Amino acid sequence: MDHSAAGGALMALLETRGLVKRFNGLTATDDVDIAIEEGERVSVIGPNGAGKTTLINLITRMLEPTEGDIVFQGESITDRAPYEVVQQGISKSFQTASIFPELTVEENAEIAALGAEHGSFRLNFFRHRNRYPEVDDATRRTLEAVNLWDQREVPAADLPYGDKRRLEIGIALASEPDLLLMDEPTAGMSPEETNATVSLIENVKEELGLTLVLIEHDMEIVFEVSDRIIVLNRGRVIAEGTPEEIQGDPDVQEAYLGGVEL
């Protein structure tokens, strides 16, 4: 995929331009300009109410912006429907596990892969699944990537919490996105589950070459996995830079922890 712009300048994979979202007079995002390069691992951090989840929901088209534009792969997606954005190459894993509990692990991944290949889930799919070898291939790749292939026949409801979250990440990966947005992927996890998920995030970047945007409250994880960090406060970008730059930024320390060093 060619991401070079005219004159040889590198074009960002994703950009937001002057992005504003207001809810009944409350400004959740306020003139947000960000640019995510292909292959980057970027974390978006900030105190509660900073506008992080709103920003992700605007990018995935779950919310309509009040003002501004969202550009992906050089094209505006501001008027696209959420399913169109997924098919174009943006996927999201949610803050709470979003799975079909009554279906097996494999069937959950198959549904997501079928939607990516054919644009929708077909009701007769499970009776005729042998007609979709490309879906089978994508399903296996996905479950191997999240280390759940050996549990493929287990009902999703029977998985431990950490594995449910891993399956949910797998569902997001099954659409084979160019950009994966992850909203609090380690929320509610034990230390062991958190470590496994951090390893998964690193493997996804290295093995699949994905661009990742991560919302995460655990600063230790953020500093470990991020190439770059964007800091929001009261809906505005107040800083961005490498983990080292953000760690030493006095504005970030003041906004995020009341002046306590990160």
From TrEMBL:
Q: Please state every residue range assigned to the domain named ABC transporter.
A: 14-259
Keywords (A to Z) from UniProt: Amino-acid transport, ATP-binding, Nucleotide-binding, Transport
What InterPro entries does the record point to?
AAA+_ATPase, ABC_AA/LPS_Transport, ABC_transporter-like_ATP-bd, BCA_ABC_TP_C, P-loop_NTPase
Name the domain of life.
Archaea
Quote the SUPFAM superfamilies the UniProt record gives: P-loop containing nucleoside triphosphate hydrolases
Provide the GO biological process annotations. Answer: D-alanine transmembrane transport; L-alanine transport; L-isoleucine import across plasma membrane; L-valine import across plasma membrane
A cellular component term, taken from the record's GO annotations: plasma membrane
Record-linked Pfam families: ABC_tran, BCA_ABC_TP_C
Task: Give an example GO molecular function.
Answer: ATP binding
| Record's keyword annotation contains ATP-binding | yes
* Protein task: Probable component of a branched-chain amino-acid transport system.
The record's family statement is: Belongs to the ABC transporter superfamily.
Q: What is this protein called?
A: Probable branched-chain amino acid transport ATP-binding protein LivG
- Recorded source organism is Halococcus saccharolyticus DSM 5350
